[in-house]
Write a structure and sequence with these properties.
Elements (H helix, E strand, L loop, with lengths): L12 H18 L6 H5 L9 H20 L24 H22 L6 E3 L11 E3 H27 L3 H9 L6
Antiparallel strand pairs: 1-2
Helix pairs in contact: 1-4, 1-5, 3-4, 3-5
């Protein structure tokens, strides 16, 4: 997403990384601006991705990484039977509820990094998976960089999905969100 991320105070690595994570979150949040629930659930390409499903996936994904870093259980963790439900709204779930849920996760992530992590070099164990090294660990720094990477990857997906739905580009959505006249 092309938006300006304010410079951190000198030496404020945590603030800088959190700001970049938030910039990528904003790109995904903007992708659902002005859409109905039906439009947000539309899957305009072969992959089956929808904007509302992508929103849910990134919110749950951030929560999963946060819980691993906190070494706490994740009550929203997916397994093989529920994996697909992590990419679509089910039951009475709505886009506003997913946005609120993600805002809560984001606030918890920020509070954890700013107040509970003593050093960005602190590590936590990675779960057993074919894509992680055996008995692997990662640092809090790696966690935030990964959240920038993963959220940014999905922000790109959201850009394509939104443009496919109604032609609205990321820059148009930035202008819309800011109430900038004549740019939409």
């Amino acid at each position: 997403m092309v938006t300006h991320v304010p410079a951190e105070a000198p030496g404020d690595e945590r603030g800088a990384l959190l700001a970049f994570v938030e910039a990528q979150r904003g790109a995904i949040r903007r992708s659902v601006l002005g859409l109905t629930e039906e439009q947000a659930a539309t899957r305009p390409c072969v992959s089956g991705l929808s904007l509302s499903g992508l929103l849910k996936h990134v919110a749950e994904g951030e929560l999963n990484w946060l819980r691993m870093a906190q070494r706490r259980p994740n009550d929203k963790e997916r397994d093989a039977d529920t994996w697909a439900d992590g990419f679509r709204l089910v039951g009475d779930e709505t886009v506003p509820q997913m946005l609120e849920f993600w805002a809560e996760v984001a606030a918890e992530t920020e509070a954890f990094i700013r107040h509970d992590v003593s050093s960005m070099d602190d590590t936590f164990p990675l779960p057993p998976a074919p894509w992680f090294p055996e008995d692997g660990h990662c640092s809090m720094r790696w966690l935030l960089i990964h959240l920038v990477e993963e959220t940014g990857r999905h922000a790109g997906h959201a850009d394509i999905l939104r443009e496919t739905l109604d032609g609205r580009t990321a820059l148009q959505l930035v202008a819309d969100e800011a109430g900038y006249p004549g740019r939409s």
